Amino acid sequence: MDDLIARISHCIEFGKIDRASPYPPDMKGEDGADELTREALDAGIAPDRLLNEAFVPGMERVGRKFSERRIFVPQMLMSAKAMDAAMRHLKPYFQSGAVRRKGTFVIGTVAGDLHDIGKNLVAMMVEGSGWEVVDLGVDVAPSRFVEAVRAHPECRAVGLSAMLTTTMTGMAAVVEALRAEVPGCRVLVGGAPVNEEFRAMIGADFTSRDPQGAVAYLESIAA
Amino acid sequence: MTKKQKLDHVLRHGPLPGETLFLPILMHFAARHGGVSYAEFCADHHARVAANLACLERFDLDCVTLMSDPYAETSAFGARIEYLPEAVPRCRDVLVRDASDIDALPMPDVFRSERCLDRLRGAERFQRELRGTVPVIGWVEGPLAEACDLADMTGMFTLLMMDPDASHRLLDHVLEFGKAFAAAQIEAGCDIIGIGDAACSQVDEETYRTFVRDRHVELIEHIHSRGGIVKFHVCGNTTHLLPSFAGLGFDLIDLDWPVGIEDARAALGPDVLVTGNIDPVEVLERPADGVYDACRALVDGHRAERYALAGGCEIGVNTPPDNLLAMLRAARSHAA
Ligand code: B12
């Protein structure tokens, strides 16, 4: 059983989605995250064990290697796909309440900004660390963030992403709207031009250069 | 010496005594400064040329450029582009959703594509106005950037990993068009062709070498064979790619702020003109004195090399003009 868990974790780390996927070349023809997760559940491994002992550590290693620039965006995307394939099998358990997630995290790229790679990577790392993620996409108006939080009462934090100096200033309006409408909700901001000084200026709760920081911060508020 | 002669001097013989070239990338900023909307700037060469000339005058630039949003080629391939008054145009279509779309892609005719033709007209207009005195920079999307414009970045990066053969076909296709577009721009009057391939900064070295490097060599050789100078632009952190950039053959390289100029110099050798690399966010946010000091440090540190002062990438639209003037003062400072 431990072997299955280790193999799933390995598939997520190296982006092996399913048997049919030709990536990574050295795992061609082998079972991927999809088949192995099914097999693990059928063998009676508890879904929360899979989440905590296979998915989370796999994604942690991915995040670390990305921060250290040992892997890049294409490899991250493959890991995200492998995680999605595995996570799909857990969805029924989340829905039935058999497995609880740490909370809901709403994320989006702010109005006027179309960059979504960084946001997607943050979303996937947060999901892989055990949160439910509601991804609003790109070019998201302040009111839509507020609506999304209202629609998900278990939402504890919102992430805003911006890559342009012209659009990052729009984060201030979102923070203001969220503070007014949903005061208890934490706001994380990020994206290449965002720094600590800017975060403090607009009154957001947290920023970091990479998804790992966001995961650690969310961990601290989930506790 | 004219500005064109100065650039030629730096490329052929090395730094100019007492002066550093000033080559900031201005697009939206130029539009704002020239009093035209960004939509006009992107879609109409009259606006783009006029805005560049206004900046040339005010900021004593050492070049003018035809660079704007990334979608000239994408529109030639058939994507619909929506122009917004004060934002970067939006590309409404993802033309390549899977491998089968690649074989259906047309090979557009540069001279029949509105956006491409507009850039050629811009080059001609610059030459009529400036008569060869100021270097005119044309622009093509690099092969990976264009593939990402067509397939969207997530789609393209996934294709690279999952279907190498289809990736090679797409990259070959866009490369062929890029070569034709570059040649036409040189013919129309561009002295320099910029190759913008920022997407490369997001891939590892092996992926770069497998899919892109040889195509960069081919594009650069093609531009040289038509008499053009090559400015290579991959913004973002490219430190991990510097060894692969060595030997590509470009004449100028734009370095973004996360890359050490010393590291680039060590990898690329003394003959390349390095432009950069103050963080555009600093230029936007700092007081003019601070911008001057930071630029002065760059200029002083690299005045003995083939070096030009610029931001790491585009200067932001809301940058105070005084901050750009502070950059200019720093570039010219050692003349005093
Ligand atoms: C890819 C790209 C594009 C693609 C976007 C494709 C897509 N689907 O995302 C396209 C071609 C559409 C594009 C368009 C433009 N772009 Co662009 N683009 C880039 C590029 C090359 C990479 C960005 C990227 O994906 N990085 C990879 C991800 C992983 O990094 P990241 O986004 O920073 O995210 C990380 C962190 O910031 C953080 N993070 C991100 N979000 C969040 C959120 C939270 C809550 C937290 C905690 C952390 C966090 O974690 C992420 C993972 O580590 C960069 C330059 C570069 N080489 O970096 C320019 C860049 C971002 N673009 C830039 C510009 C100017 C533009 C355009 C205006 C270009 C133009 N003049 O035509 C348009 C604007 C379009 C628009 N309205 O948004 C500038 C921005 C300058 C500035 N600071 O204002 C950059 C920096 C290039 C430059 N050096 O000038 N671009």
CATH architecture of chain B: Alpha-Beta Barrel
**Which second-level CATH architecture of the largest domain in chain A applies?**
3-Layer(aba) Sandwich
**SSE string of chain B, helices as H and strands as E:** HEHHHEHEEHHEHHHEHHEHEHEHHEH
Rg of chain A (CA only): 18 Å
What small-molecule ligands were found? cobalamin
Sequence of strands across the biggest β-sheet of chain A: 2-1-3-4-5
Most extensive interface between two protein chains, with residue counts = A-B, 21 and 24 residues
Report the portion of residues of chain A in β strands. Answer: 5-15%
Topology, number of strands of chain B: 10
Quaternary organization: heterodimer
Unreliable spans of chain A: none
Number of helices of chain A: 11
Distance between the termini of chain B: 18 Å
Question: How does this structure look, described?
Answer:
The complex is a heterodimer of chains A (223) and B (336). In chain A, strand 4, helix 10 and strand 5 form a beta-alpha-beta unit. The mean pLDDT of chain A is 93. Chain A is built from eleven helices and five strands. With 223 residues, chain A is of the alpha/beta class. Chain A has a five-stranded parallel sheet with strand order 2-1-3-4-5, sandwiched between helices. Chain A folds into two domains: 2-96, Methyltransferase, Methionine Synthase (B12-binding Domains), Chain A, domain 1 (Orthogonal Bundle); 104-222, 3-Layer(aba) Sandwich (Rossmann fold). Chain B is of the alpha/beta class. Chain B has a single domain (3-331), classed as TIM Barrel. Helices cover 52% and strands 11% of the residues of chain B. Chain B has helices spanning 3-13, 28-34, 38-43, 45-59, 72-76, 99-104, 114-130, 143-151, 153-162, 164-188, 205-211, 213-225, 242-245, 261-268, 280-285, 288-302, 321-332, and strands at residues 21-22, 64-65, 81-82, 90-91, 136-141, 192-196, 229-233, 252-254, 273-278, 307-311. In chain B, the strands form two sheets. In chain B, strands 1-10-9-8-7-6-5-2 form an eight-stranded parallel sheet, with helices on both faces. Chain B has a two-stranded antiparallel ribbon with strand order 3-4. In chain B, strand 3 and strand 4 form a beta hairpin. In chain B, helix 4 runs parallel beside helix 7 (114-130) and helix 8 packs across helix 9. The model of chain B has no long low-confidence stretch (mean pLDDT 96). The complex binds cobalamin (B12).
